[in-house]
Amino acid sequence: MNTSARVPVIFFTFALLLLGQADLLRAAGPVLQQDCTVSWDANTEPDLAGYRVYFGKLLTQLKQVADMGLRTSVHCSDAGVTLNGQWFASVTAYDVTGNESPFSPALPFELAGLADPVPPPQLLAPTSVQLQMNQHGFQLTWLDPNLSPVSHRISVYSWVENSPEVRRLQTMVVPPGVTMFRFFQPAAEPRVCVRIRGESGLLFSWWARNEELDATRFCFVPDPPAPSIDQPILASTIFPEPQHVTLRILQAGFELGWDDPGPNPIAHRIEVMSGAANSTDQEWFTLAVLPPGKTKFTYPYPIDVEQVCLRVRREVGRVVSLWAAANGLGERHFCYSPGQSP
Predict the structure, then answer these.
(1) Residue 122 within a domain
(2) What is the C-alpha to C-alpha distance for residues 230 and 298, in angstroms, rounded to an integer?
(3) In Å, how far are 12, 88, 191 from 186, measured between CA atoms?
(4) Is the dihedral of CA 158, 161, 166, 172 positive or negative?
(5) 123 phi and psi, to 5 degrees?
């Protein structure tokens, strides 16, 4: 496609949807109605991949974009053009390599008679938020002050005070009626914070406030802490990895066990990754570093996520083994669903 040429849009047609009438009136110039349809003649280039329609209330700011694929028409309302007033529309074409043509001549139109947007009902932020710690985990509880129960989004992240950088560790949305969330302590993080807000569709509340901190976060320092490896690892094959790993599901939580291949007992690091099943938006973080000689780790608390994956390796400082091998070909982690029966 020659991107230096203008899109061969022969004729813009606006089809007006009149209330109480089934027929469509057509016009090629400015119109005054509640909806319209933009249509154009198709390109003939063999490498054509699709069209984009650009809308805006100013001719110099056509920033509302609808990607049409190979379709040659779009209802203005379907493209989000739903406010009264003057509008402009222009079309571009793009090819299979992503090259996009210049804008076609813009055509003005006007919409009138649309109901003014009604301000969305305000969702109330969670109240009485409490953060309670247990060994290797925490529990967050709250009250939902909304008349109809709403969902709640919980964000767990690592944060260093006075630093603009955060590391997101877990995000979960719990359904309406649920007012408790139980999760792991990320042991190797210097400081962990939790935020929570109400959500319903596209509506959401403010993040719940922590009156003690006068902030919208609830923070803690992991206890017991675990050392982190900030420097590059020196090697991952000097030590043999843990052997014969078993994962046993408990009524609440799990038990992870393994054999230490020796010859001398050394420390073991356990990392966890959790969230929605089949999600790609997850991160590993340290759950515990066990002292030499300890080859079993028990987490006896409920976890409110769909899936938990664990991995374990041996390490001394920056010298570490591979993660222990699982049964699957090439897999080095062990997963289960907390809701399944032990």
Answers:
(1) no
(2) 26
(3) 58, 52, 9
(4) positive
(5) -90, 140
CATH code where residue 305 lies = 2.60.40.10
CA distance 1 to 100: 9
Q: Specify the amino acid at residue 190.
A: P
Q: What is the pLDDT of residues 93-148, one digit of tens each?
A: 888 888 888 888 888 887 776 665 555 568 899 999 999 998 889 999 999 999 88
Tokens of 125: 């932020």
Contact 177, 204 (CB under 8 A): no
Please give the backbone phi and psi of residue 78, each rounded to the nearest 5 degrees, phi first: -70, -25
Of 184, 177, 190, nearest in space to 228 by CA = 190
Are 38 and 74 in contact by the 8 Å Cβ rule? The answer is yes
Q: Count Cβ atoms within 10 A of the Cβ of residue 224 and give its class: 0-12 exposed, 13-18 middle, 19 or more buried.
A: exposed
Q: Is residue 264 part of a domain?
A: yes
Domain count, the chain: 3
How far apart, in whole angstroms, are the C-alpha atoms of residue 293 and residue 290? 8
Is the pTM value of this prediction over 0.90? no
Per the structure, the complete domain to which residue 27 belongs is given by: 13-111
Which residue do the tokens 């991949």 mark? 49
Closest CA to 295 of 313, 308, 271: 313
Q: Which residues lie below 8 Å from residue 215, measured CB to CB, with a gap of 6+?
A: 209
Do the domain assignments include residue 225? no
Asked if the structure places residue 234 within a domain, the reply is no
Would you mind telling me the total number of residues written for the chain in this entry? 342
The tens digit of pLDDT for each residue in 63-98 reads 889 888 888 888 888 888 877 777 888 888 888 888
Q: Locate 116 and state its tokens.
A: 């003014």
